[in-house]
Sequence to fold (397 residues):
Amino acid sequence: MELNGLSDLLGISNPWVLMDIKTQPKNKVIDVFIDFERGSKFPCSVCGKQTAVYDSSYKRIRYLDLFDYRCYLNIKTPRLDCNKDGVKVAHVDKWSRKSSHYSLKFEALSIRLCKEMSMKAVSVELGEPDNNLWRVFNYYVNIKIKNSLDLQSVKRVCVDETATKRGHNYVSIFTDYDTGTVIYVVEGRKKEVFSMFYGWLWDHGGHPGEIELFSMDMSKSYQAGKREYFASAQVVFDRFHIKKGLNEAINTVRKNEVQTVDELKKTKYIWLKNEKNLTENQKNTLEEFLVDCSLDTVKAFQLKSGFDHLWKVQSLAIEPLMESWIEKALRLNLKPINRFVKSVKNNMNGIMNAIKTGITNAVSEGLNSVMQLARSRARGFRNIDNFCNMIYFLGNH
Ligand SMILES: [Zn+2]
Fold:
């Protein structure tokens, strides 16, 4: 191979010289040897002074493939004898980071692939152990995303929780409502996550006292954390979570009634799904049920449209409408519904805020897919930090 041409392709210039290329056709490997010119001086890694070379050894790093050959650069790396700092390895950062055995371009490629496939698949594609690739990935996320977050204008925050796998470890995710970007991911879903978010804000130019509101689910621990660390911020309960409570109550009513009414078997989703998402068959079944208003399930179901309506009315009308909805609900005298009403009353402030502001965690509808994607991208992730970093990565574009 013509060495000069390859020199240009690899961006090799003074004091570096392309010395040799060795190919192993059987293993499909190319080794490129890069030396520095004799008599070159390099800056001491401690004091920066141009210093003569003491001795040297090759550092081998994986480069981008050359045709279908795996390509390695073997870079002659000098140790310098500084009269102040003694003998130290020089930092040669032209092709790779100090501690990495991959070239910068190879690292960038592995990160790009993470946008498209799981880390396991990236590992197979590149033929490198996933542990090493996670290390590169985490370095990148720390430097490019986490350390460079500027949170000074964050005012409204959505908090969500997700499990690494069904029922496994939980992480809490803080999103900037106004930009839709993930700004903090932390293990756990206890109130302490708010104390940690408080510190995180400080560390990234944010002002905890200027956070105006949190949109979140009705979990006691989130509420306690908010009260303790962000006393002046408003709470907005996420509409999806509020409605989920009503759906669960309706489903419990149905489950109780199924004991005596056979036709209610296997009808769970008819009552829970949005009507527009029902199949033709399901719609017909629902209509048949609705003709007979004596079923508890039907009565409970009919509370739904009134509850949804609250989100559509002028703000002055909301409170009286809420009161009459509650009366109507309590008149049914069904235990699961009564329990739901009780939780509405206990959380009235945050529910009213949700209705009046129209704010929901649905900015995070994007987030839902991010979380799902994170679970599949991080499949086989070896620790929860990898999972958290995958959420930062996918939630920051
Ligand atoms: Zn020195």
Q: What stands out?
A: Residues 44, 46-47, 49, 82, 84-85 surround zinc ion (CB under 6 Å). The mean pLDDT is 91.
